[in-house]
Design brief:
single chain; alpha/beta; seven-stranded mixed sheet; 22 helices
């Protein structure tokens, strides 16, 4: 800030010397004027005045230089330093006394005048320093208060931007100094007592940022962040300014306070907010018992958060991860103290434990999010992928039938489309079983009433173990940031966005079908890594190196497009479509899952993988040891 420049500077020694000299001389002149006013009898007034004034200046200057009082740092002035000023004052009046004796002007009147001069000189010098210390401390206190308040501009001139600026008035953390508009016609006009600024170029932004002592820019909508990521956001990153975002209404703190947060890479990759039928969703889940498997994971935990606000009767949490489950429990207890929920540590592979959860709590809706999801890890542990993703999904689906669950929603992945790895194929096999079971019920081949909905979507931003947290950790450690291939691309969706679509799909007439989500445009992972480095205020390949490590086993260079019109059908929601997939007979699906489960339990990897490829012929291994089974 501008004030910082002056708060750390010292007053030059020369200026201090001149200040002290002026004070001392003014004191002596004041004493002489008082003598004149009180008509003190002096032998020769004109001669006395000249001798008095000149000797005062000479004596003061000599003593200040000898005692080096001008080298004392005023802000660090102490009692010991006052002794030096006392000696300087004594020396001054001694020089004046000698001068008066030489000039023959010493008299009984001059002695008390000298004593008064000495005392007043000491008091004046000390008083001025005390005043300066008081002013300096007040000044520093003001600076500290200003430093706590970052000077920011709010992006936009719409109602939300103006309201945000108004809500931050009086904030202890932010001082809004203006609004940013794309309209050149209102540049430097006033809107709601705020100056409106327009920036055409980087240079214009940098100049105004310097003039305003700017610390950051606050956005009030994710779409604005996305639109400005290659202009204003980049300008801020390159100039070390904070890029902040005001939360949406549902992100306000529990106290209703506006909590501004730093912008994240997720904000730059996000799209227009998805419109969902909130009332229909609430009506669908209100007063119902809902069970979420894999509840402690990224998707499962967000499903729980959103369900908690839908007036459900009870939320049953099911996961085998102890610490994440504990953390989720603490969060739910704090944020929704009136919510009835039950945490169950359990594994979807263990039928008796699942039976306990279903038998005890009788869920009406089940969200099945439990799965192993990391491609390279499952390529190394294929039997575990099959046991959890395939057999575990069958266990959950069968319990839904046994206990009369109204609807089961299974979370799948885009990697199930033309899979190139164990994980993707295991999820496709789970889809096959669930879909065939649902169709068998609809056809009257299997007794039951459960409706099955499967949802497919791509990578979720910031999920546990995903690329964004890994890049963030690498950047914090100083790099390098590792990218598998400079051309690798992925489709991304935010976790809340994905969960909203999952619940929307659950309300649509999509039973026994596979719902796929519109994932938008693919993102180059290399671009994502470099933008994250820039958001950290660093320069890619200079401050943080980007290193390419090569594709990992089972990894694709490009993910499949989920929602092509050629391979999907429309629904009433423009972001949800129905996948056209090969249908399997339920009896064949049961036989396949039983055989895979047996091979998985016996860890007979080659036979198991060969069977997976025969059931899902489009499964072709990529950069994997299992590619030999494709021949």
């Amino acid at each position: 800030m501008i004030l910082d420049k002056y708060s750390t500077q010292f007053v030059s020694r020369g200026n201090v010397f001149l200040m002290d000299l002026a004070i001392s001389i003014l004191v002596s002149i004041g004493v002489a004027v008082l003598a004149f006013l009180f008509e003190v009898d002096i032998v020769s007034e004109r001669m006395f005045d000249y001798c008095w004034g000149l000797s005062a200046g000479l004596g003061s200057g000599v003593m200040f230089l000898l005692l080096k009082t001008h080298t004392i740092i005023i802000r660090h002035f102490s009692f010991k330093d006052s002794v030096r000023f006392g000696l300087a004052a004594l020396g001054k009046i001694a020089v004046m006394a000698v001068a008066l004796l030489v000039c023959g002007l010493m008299s009984q009147v001059a002695i008390p005048m000298l004593l008064i001069d000495g005392m007043l000189t000491i008091l004046a010098l000390l008083f001025v320093r005390l005043i300066m210390i008081f002013v300096y401390d007040s000044y520093k206190s003001k600076i500290r208060d200003l430093e706590k308040r970052s000077r920011v501009l709010v992006y936009g001139v719409n109602d939300k931007a103006v309201a945000t600026a108004a809500r931050l008035r009086g904030s202890k953390r932010y001082e809004v100094v203006g609004l940013i508009s794309q309209n050149t016609q209102i540049d430097h006009t006033l809107l709601a007592d705020q100056t409106v600024y327009h920036f055409d170029t980087k240079e214009a932004f940098e100049e105004e940022a310097s003039n305003l002592s700017l610390r950051g820019v606050i956005f009030t909508a994710e779409r604005d962040v996305n639109a400005e990521q290659d202009r204003l956001v980049r300008y801020c990153s390159e100039n070390g300014l904070k890029v902040l975002i005001a939360p949406a209404v549902d992100e306000l703190s529990d106290t209703g306070k506006l909590v501004i947060r730093k912008i994240k890479i997720e904000d730059l990759l996000g799209r227009e907010e998805i419109k969902i039928s909130l009332e229909a969703i609430k009506e669908n889940f209100k007063d119902k018992v809902v069970l979420v498997t894999g509840c402690a994971g990224s998707i499962g935990s967000e499903l729980c958060r959103q369900l908690a606000g839908f007036g459900i009767k009870k939320l049953v949490l099911y996961d085998n991860a102890e610490t994440p489950m504990h953390n989720l429990r603490l969060e739910l207890e704090e944020r929704w103290p009136d919510l009835s929920f039950v945490p169950i540590i359990g594994d979807v592979r263990l039928v008796p434990r699942l039976d306990f959860a279903f038998r005890t709590h009788r869920p009406q809706v089940v969200f099945h999010a439990a799965a192993y999801k990391h491609v390279p890890l499952m390529e190394e542990n294929p039997c575990e992928a099959v046991m959890v993703n395939v057999v575990g999904s069958r266990n959950v689906a069968d319990k839904c039938i046994e206990y009369g669950v109204e609807k089961m929603v299974m979370i799948s992945t885009d990697k199930a489309v033309n899979p190139t790895n164990i994980m993707g194929c295991s999820k496709r096999l789970a889809e096959i079983y669930v879909q065939s079971l649902g169709k068998a019920i609809a056809a009257g081949e299997v007794a039951g009433k459960t409706q099955f909905v499967t949802t497919r979507f791509g990578n979720v931003l910031g999920s546990n173990g995903s690329v964004i947290p890994r890049f963030r950790d690498q950047i914090e450690r100083g790099g390098p940031v590792t990218v598998t291939d400079p051309n690798i691309t992925r489709y991304f969706m935010t976790i809340p966005e994905a969960c909203r679509l999952v619940m929307e799909a659950a309300t649509l007439p999509t039973e026994n079908r596979i719902c796929v989500f519109d994932m938008g445009q693919p993102v180059k992972i290399d671009t994502l890594a470099r933008r994250m480095i820039e958001l950290a205020g660093l320069v890619p390949d200079q401050d943080i190196e980007v290193v390419y490590t090569g594709l990992r086993p089972g990894e694709k260079l490009y993910e499949e497009v989920l929602s092509n019109k050629e391979n999907t059908d429309e629904t009433s929601h423009d972001r949800i479509r129905i996948a056209r997939t090969r249908e399997y007979a339920y009896a064949d699906a049961v036989k396949a899952v039983e055989e895979l489960g047996e091979l998985g339990r016996e860890v007979r990897i080659p036979e198991m993988v060969k069977l997976m490829k025969s059931i899902v012929p489009e499964y072709k291994s990529n950069n994997s040891r299992f590619a030999e089974f494709d021949k």
